[in-house]
Every structure is written in structure tokens, then in C-alpha cells.
Design a protein that fits this description.
- With 308 residues, this protein is an alpha/beta fold.
- The protein is globular.
Length: 308
């Protein structure tokens, strides 16, 4: 039986990695031969979850066609966020909770997209629809994805379905949502050992809006000052990346997980449009965004409106 690779997006976050693992486990229980793989190193938050529930990090790949022609995508659909040879592959399934853009296939596929806060909330439904029991450690990873993507239910992307799913999974995993959740999120704020280049690419997603190339990167923190003390260094890397990759805008967002606000460092030719998007003024390329925590629901839609 040919192997199928289950793949999350570039610069993987906790939902991307854990969804690949849980969906691969589910597919194997249904008789498929799958392997969860990653398109980059796991961040500190994800490593905390993997270590807590005793999983190895998935194998990292650059191309999938070295292993297989068949893939399943989780937590993304846009080709610029996918494995480099995605256009050469047969996409069998997509499980996602983002907008659908820049996506097409030659053959029919299983596509499941729902407006919830986390891919794992959808995967839990598929487990139940197929009457597949969820092991304790898999449930723990699934819970970790929901906590991460919803910022422990503080994000505006969070739905009642996510909350119910998290409660169900925490019962199976036998962990307390709040205490484990805070430990998980705090683990992701340990960024002191990262270079400026690593920081801006830890969780960066590329978009194309009306022909404009944009990257929005986001990191979590419990204090803005640690990262902002390196702002000049970060700006140098942003400008270098913009020049090297012919970008129109690079937005670097620092989200305070305790206060539920963000600070944004922006660079590129569209900085005026960025000011318009968030009704703010950038002072030395920096702006404060009250109550903004979600890239998917608050940042990307605002940028799209400003560029339309």
C-alpha cells in the first residue's frame, strides 16, 4: 500500500503539528498507510506538548514527492503555505479552518472546512463519526492544538464547539485545561534563544491580496519589552526579507497572551495601507493594537479590506 503523507503548513505551529499526528492516527485506524510529517522545526510550545504526551517530533521534509504522490493537508489549503512540490502531488483530503484561496486540484477529494477556532475541533468530529476511540496521549495533543489556536479560549476565533471539544479531550487526556493550558502557552513565550531571523519566521504565513505579496508573522509573549528591546534588529531583518523575497509588506505581530493585546512592527511599501487597516499610526514602524490577538479573524481580514 502506498504511503500517504499528512502535512501541516510551513513554519508549523502547535495546531499544524498535532493535527497532522492526530489525523494520521485516525487514517491509519481506518486502514490507510499514513505518516505525519512537518515543514519545519517545532516551536517551543509544540515541543512542550510533544514532550508532555511523550511523542517524537514528526520528520521534517522539504518535498513530498521523494516519498509519495499522495498527501493529505491539515490546517491549511493555500499553496504558498504548503509543501514546495504541492502542484506535483495528488491531494486526497484537506481538513482546515481558514479561508480558501489559491487552491485547486485535478481530481475530486475529501474537503472539510469549518469556521471553528482549531483544526483539531474538526478532527474530533471525524473520530466520532467513524466511531474511532481516541487514545489518552492523542487526546492530549488535540487539546494542545485547541488551547494554542484559541489562546485558551480568549481568541475571537474561539467557538462554543472548540470549548466543548477541549473539555471532552481534557477528560480523555486526564489533564486540567487551565493549568496545563497556561503552562503550554507560557512555554511558547520562551524566545530568548531565537535570532531575529528565527523570530520573524517562527509562525509566518504568506498571502497574496490583489496581487500584493504579504507575510504576517506572529509570536506570543507575556511581556512586550523583551522582544521590543530588539526592534532595530528585527526591522533590519524584515527589510532584508522584503528586498530578498520581493514582498510588499511584512507584518510582525507580538501578542500578549495575558492581556489580550498586540503590538505590530511593520515594514514595506504598504505601511500606509496597514495604518488604514487598523486605524492607527505607526511610530518608528510600531503600533499598539488593543484587543487584537487573531491573525485569521482580525489581522488578515482588515488587511484585505484596506487593500480592496
Amino acid at each position: 500500500m502506498n504511503k500517504i503523507l499528512v502535512i501541516g503548513h510551513l513554519n508549523p505551529d502547535t495546531d499544524s503539528i498535532t493535527s497532522a499526528i492526530s489525523f494520521s492516527f485516525l487514517q491509519n485506524q481506518l486502514g490507510k498507510n499514513t505518516e505525519a510529517v512537518a515543514l519545519g522545526e517545532c516551536n517551543e510550545e509544540t515541543l512542550f506538548a510533544l514532550n508532555y504526551f511523550k511523542f517524537d517530533a514528526p520528520r521534517i521534509i522539504d518535498r513530498a514527492s521523494n516519498d509519495t504522490k499522495d498527501v493529505m493537508l491539515v490546517d491549511h489549503n493555500e499553496f504558498q503555505q504548503a509543501v514546495s512540490d504541492i502542484s506535483e502531488l495528488n491531494i486526497l483530503a484537506v481538513i482546515d479552518h481558514h479561508r480558501i484561496a489559491n487552491f485547486q486540484t485535478a481530481s475530486p477529494l475529501y474537503y472539510r472546512a469549518e469556521a471553528v477556532g482549531c483544526t483539531q475541533t474538526i478532527i474530533l468530529k471525524i473520530f466520532k463519526e467513524n466511531s474511532i476511540a481516541i487514545p489518552k496521549n492523542i487526546a492530549g495533543l488535540m487539546l494542545s492544538g485547541i488551547i494554542s489556536d484559541t489562546l485558551l479560549f480568549k481568541s475571537p476565533t474561539c467557538t462554543e464547539e472548540d470549548v466543548r471539544a477541549a473539555k471532552e479531550l481534557s477528560s480523555i487526556a486526564e489533564v486540567d485545561i487551565n493549568s496545563y493550558g497556561l503552562d503550554l502557552l507560557k512555554a511558547g513565550t520562551n524566545l530568548s534563544n531565537k535570532t531575529a531571523e528565527q523570530l520573524i519566521h517562527l509562525d509566518a504565513k504568506s498571502f497574496e491580496v490583489h496581487g500584493k505579496k504579504i507575510v504576517v508573522s506572529q509570536v506570543n509573549a507575556i511581556d512586550f519589552s523583551d522582544i521590543l528591546s530588539r526592534k532595530n534588529e528585527i526591522l533590519d531583518v524584515l527589510n532584508h526579507t522584503i528586498s530578498e523575497s520581493s514582498l510588499d509588506l511584512f507584518v510582525f505581530v507580538i501578542t500578549n497572551i495575558l492581556e489580550g493585546d498586540s503590538k505590530m512592527i511593520s515594514a514595506g511599501s504598504l505601511i500606509n495601507e496597514c495604518e488604514k487597516a487598523f486605524n492607527t499610526k505607526f511610530i518608528d514602524n510600531e503600533a499598539f493594537l488593543k484587543g487584537v490577538v487573531s491573525r485569521k479573524k482580525q489581522i488578515i481580514p482588515s488587511l484585505m479590506d484596506a487593500l480592496s
